[in-house]
């Protein structure tokens, strides 16, 4: 149940990040402000929208990383007690001139 909630939260955060990045304007988009098309009459103020969206994007990305780490640890593939070398199959190496194969 908790894993499903984290998966849903992760997808929702991904969609929010995509929407926030698409809504934000680039660095060169403020050229119109110098010719009288400034954003001083907006809801967030002259620079408030950019700061608000950037701050919201920062927190959504932090939440994205947290949910990614939680999903990684909950997957059960992370364990400090096992080694990759221990999981390798044992191969038989033929000995030239011998009758029995030697296990490595």
TrEMBL record:
Keywords, A to Z, come to: Cell membrane, Membrane, Protein transport, Translocation, Transmembrane, Transmembrane helix, Transport
Give yes or no: UniProt keyword Membrane.
Answer: yes
- Tell me the GO BP annotations in alphabetical order: intracellular protein transmembrane transport; protein secretion; protein transport by the Sec complex
What membrane topology does this protein have? Multi-pass membrane protein
The record ties this protein, via InterPro entries, to:
SecG
**Quick one: where is this thing mainly located?**
membrane
Cellular component (GO) terms are: plasma membrane
> Which Pfam families does this entry report, sorted A to Z?
SecG
Superkingdom as given in the UniProt entry = Bacteria
Has UniProt tagged this entry with the keyword Lipid biosynthesis? no
Q: What NCBIfam families has UniProt attached to this entry?
A: secG
Q: What does this protein do?
A: Involved in protein export. Participates in an early event of protein translocation.
User: What family is this?
Assistant: Belongs to the SecG family.
User: What is the protein's given name?
Assistant: Protein-export membrane protein SecG
């Amino acid at each position: 149940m908790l894993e499903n909630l984290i998966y849903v939260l992760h997808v929702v955060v991904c969609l929010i990040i995509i929407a926030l990045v698409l809504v934000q304007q680039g660095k060169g988009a403020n050229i119109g402000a110098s010719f009288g098309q400034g954003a001083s009459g907006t809801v967030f103020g002259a620079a408030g929208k950019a700061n608000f969206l950037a701050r919201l994007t920062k927190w959504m990305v932090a939440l994205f990383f947290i949910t990614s780490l939680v999903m990684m640890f909950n997957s059960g593939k992370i364990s400090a007690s096992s080694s990759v070398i221990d999981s390798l199959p044992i191969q038989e190496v033929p000995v030239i001139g011998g009758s029995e194969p030697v296990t490595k």
